[in-house]
Amino acid sequence: MSADKTASDPPAEPVQADRLLSLDVYRGMVMLLLASSMFGIAKYAAKLEGPVAEWVVFQGTHPEWNSQFGVFGLALWDLIQPAFMFIVGVSMPFSYEKREKLGESYRSRMQHAWTRGLLLTLLGVFLQSLRQDHTNWIFTNVLSQIGLGYGLLFFLVGRSWRTQFLTGGAILVGYYLLMLLFPRGLDDWRMHFENGTSFPQHFDTWFLNLFPREKAFEAHAYATLNFVPSMVTMLMGLMSGQVLKNSSTSSGTKLKQLSIAAGILLVTGAVLGLTICPIVKKLWTPSWTLYSGGWVIALLALSYWIIDVKKWNGWVFPFVVVGLNPLTMYLLGMMSKGWFLANFRRHLPDALFTGPTRPIVEATLLVVVFWLILWWMYRKRIFLRL
Q1: d(C-alpha 39, C-alpha 364), whole Å
Q2: Distance CA 41, CA 364 (A)
Q3: How far is residue 149's CA from residue 218's CA, in Å, rounded to a whole number?
Q4: Which element (helix H / strand E) includes 2?
Q5: Given CA atoms 102, 107, 111, 117 in this order, what sign does their dihedral have?
Q6: Phi, psi of 102 (to 5 degrees)
Q7: How far is CA 311 from CA 22, 267, 288, 322, in A?
Q8: pLDDT-based confidence at residue 345 (cuts at 50, 70, 90)
């Protein structure tokens, strides 16, 4: 883990001119939603009645199991993790091209990718172990999921579209067959995609019990092997990043390519979800990979159109501050939220924390404090990276 810092006073806008601004804004929005738990709006709506309140509550929660409602419906909160992982992939072509231009060898770049993957995996385990007496060897935290696939994904950076497409397809088809064929003896094929009877969960009851733990691990909804199909989510990001980095095509062509890809993925994922492969975010089923991939690519295309094409950028600065330090925002949310909330309640008027608006007030205070920390780091050119 490192913090990049320059000694001289930074200019008012220390963002590199060659950065993809829409990606920084997209990343910042995702991290703000994650760290703020959607600004407490869903918790506030839970105290209200009516169809609008119910819809808002639904958007702020993970559906109990199947994430697809209707044909194209899903909860916004379900998209946070795929967007997070997708953005990691989008960044890779830019990051490793920059390293290559700086003279780093292929071996050095590969070592960096695998080291980063290992550190992210272990950092995820560390975060899962907070407030526990022993190391909680579990790999379902989003950082661990990214880390487990990151080193493998490196080998696809700069490869042809055909190679990337065939690799992603092979991963999803192979993973689907594993889910469908194991465990054996289930009465109905749908049981292979249900909570408690799926292959990834059976795998964890063996794999995670190889690690030292206080009591035997019992499978729950999220699974270690989710990193396999979610690696394709990152691969979609990598491919999208290569589209946006291509200087030989116009912005209109880039938008068209992203939009077509998003549409194909949405339709394909929805059809699979309604037929042979339920859309389950908690298992990261292949249909969920495609379905969520369509959404996150569409959001990237929209961000790119507004920010990098139309240049409607007067509002983006707060999100850029967060987007340049996403790991810091994530760690602040995971490690210090409770401490800050306890001190807010201790030192601020009690009236702020009574009544139905309490979740919104607490989330807003947290975001303001976290953002100010990141703004100070931004001014000092301190960017926490692995």
Answers
A1: 6
A2: 10
A3: 24
A4: strand 2-4
A5: positive
A6: -80, 0
A7: 10, 30, 33, 19
A8: very high
| Domain tally, the chain | 1
pLDDT at residue 14 above 50? no
Structure tokens at 171: 């991963």
Phi, psi of 240 (to 5 degrees): -65, -40
Residue 139 has pLDDT above 50, yes or no: yes
Model pTM above 0.90: yes
Radius of gyration (C-alpha) of the chain in whole angstroms = 21
Mean predicted confidence (pLDDT) in 238-246:
97
Domain that holds residue 129: 2-385
The residue-averaged pLDDT of 128-151 equals 96
* Closest C-alpha to 291, from 230, 205, 366: 230
CA distance 179 to 277: 10
**The length of the chain, given as a count of residues:** 386
Query: Chain-centre distance of CA 362, in angstroms?
Result: 24
